[in-house]
Design goal:
11 strands; single chain; alpha/beta; BirA Bifunctional Protein, domain 2; 247 residues; eight-stranded mixed beta sheet
Length: 247
């Protein structure tokens, strides 16, 4: 398995596109990967959600926050440079069982990694929680036996108030399609009351996931085909309002 790490904030369209390109490459080809990455600001809605139910469009526009749709299910999240995104792409094998089992396996592993920083973090469903507040949330997408599991971890406090962007954080949230799960949030820095290094969190997550998956991944990079596919997806899909506002 390859290890792909990029902790400098990058174009969120390309960030989502790389995940999909890796999932396509894993499907039937065995090109597995563990990826840790950071996006610039964006609201990211789940595959089957309706944007107008989930996002304060006027506020997002005023703050120049793009609204993107990812390939996986689940609820809406806010990506910003204080988030660490963790993606695991597998082609069958351990970790690719039922949706529930996959969330449990990876959630418990990542909770264990973060527990070295804040011991009270627990995994429940697709969420990582600290005293009922969300530290991270996960989603999945599948192509045959191939799996994309990805989660967003709040390392530093959000640079914008979540309730200003995400309608699920407001009292009268009534979505017409797949709902987000409104929950208070807390970053690792807020939880420990001090600085938390993105590099430290990434290193701990890599070690714990390596134990789960049977050995340390080798340092790698995108293949030329994966890179070209990601660039095309970023331009023609994640950069296209017809996809991002498709529901």
């Amino acid at each position: 398995m390859r290890r792909l790490i990029g902790l400098d904030p990058a174009d969120p369209r390309r960030g989502l596109a790389i995940d999909e390109a890796l999932l396509e490459a894993a499907h039937g080809k065995g090109r597995e990967a563990m990826r840790l990455w950071v996006n610039d600001r964006a609201v990211v809605v789940g595959r089957s959600q309706r944007v107008r139910d989930e996002v304060d469009l006027a506020f997002a526009s005023r703050r120049n926050v793009p609204i993107l749709r990812r390939v996986s299910g689940g609820g809406t999240v806010y990506h910003y440079p204080g988030n660490l995104n963790v993606s695991v792409v597998l082609d069958g094998g351990p970790g690719t069982g039922s949706v529930r089992e996959t969330f449990r396996l990876f959630g418990e592993a990542i909770a264990d990694a973060l527990g070295r920083i804040q011991p009270a973090i627990v995994s429940e469903g697709n969420c990582l929680l600290l005293d009922g507040a969300k530290v991270g949330g996960a989603a999945q997408a599948r192509r045959g036996d191939a799996l994309l599991y990805h989660t967003t971890l709040l390392v530093r406090p959000a640079d914008l108030p979540m309730e200003k962007l995400l309608l699920a954080m407001r009292p009268r949230y009534r979505p017409g399609r797949v709902p987000s799960r409104p929950c208070p949030t807390v970053s690792l820095e807020e939880a420990v009351g001090g600085d938390v290094s993105m590099e430290e969190v990434a290193a701990r997550v890599v070690r714990t996931l390596s134990d789960l998956l049977g050995g340390p991944p080798r340092e790698g990079r995108l293949t030329a085909a994966e890179s070209a596919r990601a660039e095309r997806l970023a331009r023609e899909k994640y950069g296209d309002e017809a996809w991002n506002r498709s529901i």
